[in-house]
Amino acid sequence: MAAANRDVVQGTLDMLVLKALSLEPMHGWGITQRIHQITKDVLQVNPGSLYPALERLQDKRWVLSEWSTTENNRRAKYYRITAAGRRQLGDETESWRRLVAAVDAVLRTS
Amino acid sequence: MTWTSIAVRRLRALLRRSRVEAEMAEELRLHLEMEAAHRERAGLAPDEARRAAVHAFGGVEHAKEAYRDARGVWAVEQVVQDIRYGLRSLRAAPAFTAAVIITLALGIGASTAIFSVVHGVLLRALPYADPERIVVLWENDRDSHTEREPASVPDYFDYAARARSFSALAAFAEVPLNRTSADAEPERLAGARVTANLLAALGATPRIGRGFLAAEDAPGGPRVAIVSDRYWRTHLGGTTSVLGSSLLLDDSASTIVGVLPPEVRFPTEQTDVWVPMQLSPTSAPRSRHFLTLVGRLRANVSVTAANSEAASIGKALESEYTSDNAARGASVESLTDVLVGGVRRTLVLLLGAVALVLLIACANAASLLLARLAARAREVAVRAALGATRRRLAQQFFVESLLLTLGASTIGVALAAVGLRGLLAFAPATLPRRAEIALSAPVLAASIAVSVLVALAFGLLPALGGGAMPGDALQSTGSRGGTASREHRRFRGWLVVAEVALSLVLAVSAGLLVRSFERARGVDPGFTARRVLEIHYQLPPSRYFQSFSNYPGGWSKILGFQRDLVARAGALPGVQSAALAYNDPLTAGFANSFRIEGREAEAERGQAELATRPVSASYFATVGIPILRGRGFTERDDASAPLVVVINAAAATRYFANDDPLGKRIRFWGQFREIVGVVGNERFGGLVAVAPPAVYPVVSQAPMTIATLLVRTQGDPRASLAAVRRELRALDPNVAPFDVQTIDEALATSTAPQRFSATLLGSFAGVALVLALVGIYGVVAYSVAQRTREIGIRVALGATRSDVVREVLAQGLRLALAGCAIGLLGALAAGRLLASQLFAVSPWDPATFGLAITAIFAIAIVGSYVPARRAAGVQALEALRQD
Asked: What does the alpha-carbon distance between residue B386 and residue B88 come to, in Å, rounded to a whole number?
């Protein structure tokens, strides 16, 4: 049970990260900020979950990373979504919408 | 595609670990700073901002771990860690590590060595094409109850013509050949006369050259030869130019036409050369049996079918040739059975024994592993509390167990190799297929697999199965280990009991075989002389004329040779006396049918046979056989005098029970001979067999071209060898002596099979007892350590040192008693199984059983002694204060 939950949570987080990156490449902290923004403070992502998620996304080649410098001239690792990642985002969004509609339907009938 | 990217990233993580770690640290550090900066901008003071950031971070180390886990430390890196940790913890417990490794290594080594022998001799197919189709056609004699008899030439041709079962039926006879060459000493080769279709029957093709042609196998055909691979490589240069060269065999040149392939060592491992038999149906009489028949079955014919066909042909021949083939039948046996059947029983026995050793070794290792696991319960608990997952712990135990088995396997392989070489050097000459025995890789793999299983089963599973629950082990009071470890303790106790039981079985078996060997060695062979040198020789037929028409008188050259040889050898310094015999005292030789004058009717009914042993006049004195009645031979019994013989006591009892044999006449070899004496029995049929009845003609009336010279010396017989060779060479420089040995050596060889089994089984029993000792020590020592507090209380309450010691010893003895009780049944069963191998020893020999049981109790006492001492030294307060 816990594993299944974890997967669902992971999948959701992956989607959020991809969405955050779909606008422009960003470093880790920037991603957490963006998710914070987009979800209007509802969802907080802590680093313990974010960086593992980024590793997974890099494994699947949906995200690429490279070292660069910030505005303050600090070295940071920037993450960028790939074309495959964009396609995945589209698919994920689609299935998420379907899931939400289904659950909603169930809840409404009872 | 993602696989490759994952692999690349993992590889990078593995190979550039410090770089990757640094990057990760930097990334997280930056994240933290940015978070802190963000909060500062929101209005917090810098250090507060920092603290809030850290808090939001959720634990830096934790984050790092999560990061690392996601990055995925490649399995390899974990394994490297585990190996290092495993080595360290094994090094920290050297006694345990050494004990387990040595125990498993002994088990692996011994079983691999024996399994390899069994594999090479019994299990592997013979190196011929379709070896199950190759059979031997034996004749048998119902009257003398002999099976596996050779056939005669006319019989061979009849079988070949009438039998439908064989695609090829060949014949061979072993024959020694004298090879002379201009530039070397005369050499005696182990040869065989074969029919041209022998290669077809075996399904083999020559390595170079060809087999014999039909024309070469016809009487009067050209002289050709085929050499063995070994002889070709060692004596003939090993090049293809050997084809067409010639060998001087028995003074006539034979052209080499082929070389056998290396795996064909037929009919014996030592055979050097084949020559064609050149037979016709009239080459020899039907009453002379000297051919061994080898056939290849046709595709759909089974051995049983061939057997019944042979039997019916045999019956037909019996009715067609009532005198020559009376009571003679035939049977068919697979070649494999012929070659290895004799040793099958012994080898299976050894296999059983070594399996017991392996079991004991595994039980010992299991016991040690369980003990160690219990001792590490605390360590495991702490690690689990620190966050190690079960999976990770299991992985680490797994690696540690593998390290142990790796160590044990390495030593075990070395032991197996050394052991195998020792086995082969020490094995009796009767072990067939010796050259095909090698360390068998599948067997080695199997033994290693067994030890891996043991290590896993007892080093790993109990840890998983709840034997090391964190909660239990961390409690410092009372229940040292809890229920699971109590179960383990009982299990270990039973393991040791099982070990003891198996050791008893081995000890009893070994004891029985050793006693059997001692008895066999102690048998009186029937002759008293021991310092006798035996030298065999053969006079080549080309120079020593031998036609049976004027035997024996017309064989003057051979008679002269015999006379001169005995005289010259007897005259040498250091030589007490010399004699000739067709066979040395421990070799059976041949048997002939015979007729007693006046009792021909008896002979008609059953073709009894007497072992016929031509000897010179000085034989009985030289070898030390008593003359019981009448006289021996003298110089006067020569070719011109009446023909005389001497019989042995067994023949006298069998055929002259109510009669005086002296003066009676016996007919064999077409002539009547008078019995002039009765001599004591020599056990020429083997020390453990009953002495067969025999008749001794004298060589001056029965000259032989192949014989043994026996020289009795004052000192070491071999010291006279050179002088004897010189005399032989002086008489005829082209005669090569062979098979030189002393009677002592021959006696030792005749009991070699018993010695082999006894020694091997004795070593196994020794190993088993040592392992059982270690096992008992382990269990008793552990129990003492566990019960230290209890002992302390006892002592405080007034128990004396000797009370404590007695109790510990009693524990050890209880284990031994239980083991003996269980093992006794096994030992009795083993005795029954061994019964056929035993000589003059009952399978329930009480002395052996008593000795074995005493040994077990002795090791129980020795094994409990040190822990008992330790227990006795426990001070009351100390024990109570402990823990």
From this structure: 20
